[in-house]
Amino acid sequence: MSYRVLVTDKLAEEGLELLRAEPGLEVVVNTKLDPKALREALKEADGIVIRSGTQLTAEVLQDQTRLKVIVRAGVGVDNIDVPAATRQGIVVMNTPGGNTVSTAEHTMALMLALSRNVAQANDSLKAGRWDRNKFTGTQLGGKTLGIVGLGRVGLAVAKRAQGFDMKVVGFDPFLSAERAAELGIESISPLDDLWGRCDYITVHTPLSAETRNLIGPNELAKMKPNVRIINCARGGLIDEAALAEALTAGKIAGAAVDAFDPEPPPADNPLVTHPQVLVTPHLGASTEEAQVSVAVEAARLLSDFFQSGQIRFAVNMPTLDRAELDEMRLYLDLGRRLGMLHSQMDRGTVKSATVRYRGEVASKNTRLITASFAAGWMESALEDQVNLVNAEILAKERGITIVEEKTTDPGDFGTLIQTEVVTEKKQYVAAGTLFGKEFVRLIRLGPYRLDAHLDGNLLVFTHKDVPGLIGFIGTTFGRHNVNIAQMNVGREQPGGEAIGVVNLDSVPPAEALEELKKNPAILSVSLIKLPEAGAIAPWLAQ
Ligand SMILES: NC(=O)c1ccc[n+]([C@@H]2O[C@H](COP(=O)([O-])OP(=O)(O)OC[C@H]3O[C@@H](n4cnc5c(N)ncnc54)[C@H](O)[C@@H]3O)[C@@H](O)[C@H]2O)c1
Ligand SMILES: O=C(O)CC[C@@H](O)C(=O)O
């Protein structure tokens, strides 16, 4: 049997050689395909190896019935529509770690070059000038570096910055303060407290809906005027126009940028053209060592896949046999939804997490359900596509152990999963059960019992148990044309504090939420977005 493998970005020769030496693999290298040609070429391919230059969009992947595997030589899979690939049964793998050191070193290179005006001084001297006074810089030693995102690259930057005698502070919802302290990093939470503390700020999070414009005009306004900002992660994490404006207005001192949105950036991109911004064309991972490392690893992943069916570093595929997956599907879905609920209830640094199983569910493979909870909890925050296979390991790496407790005593419900997350701010408790063979239900939030649907748009509000409040909520949403599908309230005693969960047919506008918050009887309002009823995780859908 012969498999055709397409390579559509520049891959180190060492990786190509490995692929070519593999019996049964036909390797086609073409780095000049436009989306239409790529789509056509994929119809004749069993596998593809890419870096960050190839966009595997839903359109490109649509109806690719021959394609079985995508291997990303690198970390970020944001140039692949992973849900679209998963839906089509295409395994997506990446090579995490292979370019971490190079990217951390590039971050340091940019930080140093920015501090010592290396690029400007180089241009000036080559243009025949000897401007020693103009390029007086600042030193890193003794300064405070703020790192947003303390994963692989963020931690590697922290270690190097400590070698330069910098004080390192940082924020990452998935690194416990204790683990950070062990690494000599002061954990700052909430993130808003970090901006005003730092002389240098560097971002190392994935780009997601939550992290887009992580640094915008409000955050820039809170920074010290001498601050220097570095982005060696993804364009889109920093509002490019706001950053350029803050530099021009002298509100901040400088910036260095390796990643843009889109790439390549248009010629009039405000950062590329700005005299105080040092730019490089996405070179973080562009070292001989990193490129060899990711290319060789990618080649090995691909040949193992075709030769023996092995799946490693898959970002969308659990190693679970079919029968077990079918039996567990609804429990896994409930675990994931509870995790997603927690991830949206609080942004504080996690101290501990516990999952309690009661009744029938306690006799199932609860490790898998706990992994599903962890995946739902972390899936919007991590660069890795979190799934059943990697969720608990990713949590552990961040100093978070998810404790499991179980009893087969059925209690009030036949089956119950109760989740508890303790952050430095407070303790959050939720519990869910299965209703029939199809439905998952939220039956407890904090100290309150209720019975709410665990899907779609949920408005959770704590309030004083006073007459007229339910009417007020209904009228407010009515005025904003938002339909209430279902409403539930829970309280400990009449007239005390209570909780309400409202299932909405659409996302309410911000003004509607503001109006609710102004009512003195309403104590807190959170909008939680969950998958629609019956929509299961891509990694459960295979
Ligand atoms: N410039 C390059 O060539 C290059 C090379 C490698 C990686 N990258 C990019 O660098 C980034 C980091 O890569 P990595 O391998 O360290 O990924 P990682 O998954 O190991 O780390 C990402 C970290 O960000 C944290 N995070 C997520 N949301 C956050 C938020 N709102 N606030 C604070 N922290 C948050 C996560 O908890 C995680 O610890 C990614 O965007 C990746 O694509 C760029
Ligand atoms: O392919 C590259 O050189 C960039 C890779 C980098 O952005 C990554 O996410 O691994």
Task: Characterise the protein shown here.
- By secondary structure, the chain is of the alpha/beta class.
- The protein has 3 domains: 3-97 and 289-308, NAD(P)-binding Rossmann-like Domain (Rossmann fold, 3-Layer(aba) Sandwich), CATH 3.40.50.720; 100-279, Rossmann fold (3-Layer(aba) Sandwich), CATH 3.40.50.720; 322-540, D-3-phosphoglycerate dehydrogenase, domain 3 (60s Ribosomal Protein L30, Chain: A, 2-Layer Sandwich), CATH 3.30.1330.
- Helices cover 31% and strands 24% of the residues.
- It has 16 helices and 22 strands.
- The chain has helices spanning 13-21, 35-42, 58-61, 82-87, 100-115, 118-126, 152-163, 177-182, 217-221, 240-248, 288-308, 322-345, 366-378, 391-397, 469-479, 510-518; strands spanning 3-7, 25-29, 47-50, 69-72, 91-94, 144-148, 167-171, 186-187, 200-203, 228-231, 254-257, 277-279, 350-359, 402-407, 415-423, 427-435, 439-445, 448-453, 457-464, 484-491, 497-504, 522-529.
- Strands 8-7-6-9-10-11-12 form a 7-stranded parallel sheet, sandwiched between helices.
- β6 (144-148), α7 and β7 (167-171) form a beta-alpha-beta unit.
- The longest helix is centred in the middle third of the chain and has 24 residues, at 322-345.
- The mean pLDDT is 92.
- Bound molecules: nicotinamide-adenine-dinucleotide (NAD) and (2R)-2-hydroxypentanedioic acid (2HG).
